[in-house]
Each structure stands twice: as structure tokens, then as C-alpha cells.
Amino acid sequence: MEISQSVDPCTPMPCDVVTVPARQGLEAVDILRRAVSEAVGSVLHDDGGDTLGFLVPPGTAAAWDVPGSTCTETNGRGLRLTPEPEPPVEGADWLLPPGDADLATDPAVLRAALGEAARLIEAADNCR
User: Fold this and answer.
1) pTM, whole model, 2 decimals?
2) What is the pLDDT of residues 57-108, one digit of tens each?
3) Which residues pair with 43 in a beta bridge?
């Protein structure tokens, strides 16, 4: 799946949003950013710092089944990604804004990174 997108700044792009707990999400961002051949797309964080939202291509929600996360389908309603510095959701800020990242993360790549992040967190917690 091609995740880089060329976007006309005037044309909003619909997307789905995968929401995960902040600890797992931050670990997944690190995993994705270290990967040589993969890229992480735009990522939102809530103002409370409890969750991260990974922007993924529209239609991802239909097949999303990763435990501990949710994927919200927008179908072009509500959240629409535009390559502007302002976050598209009130009460959220960009962790990785459009322009600093691809617009969306490949769902298969995100699924693998979230799984690896969960395993790393579990191992770290078991060492205490």
C-alpha cells in the first residue's frame, strides 16, 4: 500500500483514526521512526496526554482488530486531514504534523509496530 500522498493544500483528505494509549503509541512512533523502509504518518495526541491518534487511510476501520486500540471510520465526515499546522480535532495537538510526516500510516505497518510496542511494554513491566 502506498502511504505517501501528494496533496493539494486546498483539498482535504479523508482519513480514519487509530486511537491507542499514549504509552503504547509513543513506543510505536519510536519503532516506526527507526524503521529504515517504513514511515509513520501524522499523529495526534490529546491535550490530557492519555491517547495518541494515528491517521490511517479511509476504510481501515472496517478491518481493524488490534486489541487495546480503536479505529474510527470517518467516511469523509468529521475529521478531514489537511496539510495545515492546526490539528483537525478540538482538544488535540500534533505529535507529528502533516508536512513533517506522510499523511497516513500504512495500517499493516502500524499493526506490527503496535504489537511490538505492546511486547516491549510488557517485558519492561515484568522486569520491575
Assistant:
1) 0.80
2) 999 999 999 999 999 987 655 555 555 556 666 778 888 887 766 678 999 9
3) 54, 96
Q: Residue 30 burial by CB count (10 A; 0-12/13-18/19+): exposed, middle or buried?
A: middle
Q: Which residues lie below 8 Å from residue 15, measured CB to CB, with a gap of 6+?
A: 55, 56, 57, 58, 74, 79, 80, 81, 103, 104
* 3-state SS record for the chain: CCCCCCCCCCCCEECEEEEEEHHHHHHHHHHHHHCCCCCCECEEEECCCCEEEEEECCCHHHHCCCCCCEEECCCCCCCEECCCCCCCCCCEEEEECECCEECCCCHHHHHHHHHHHHHHHHHHHHCC
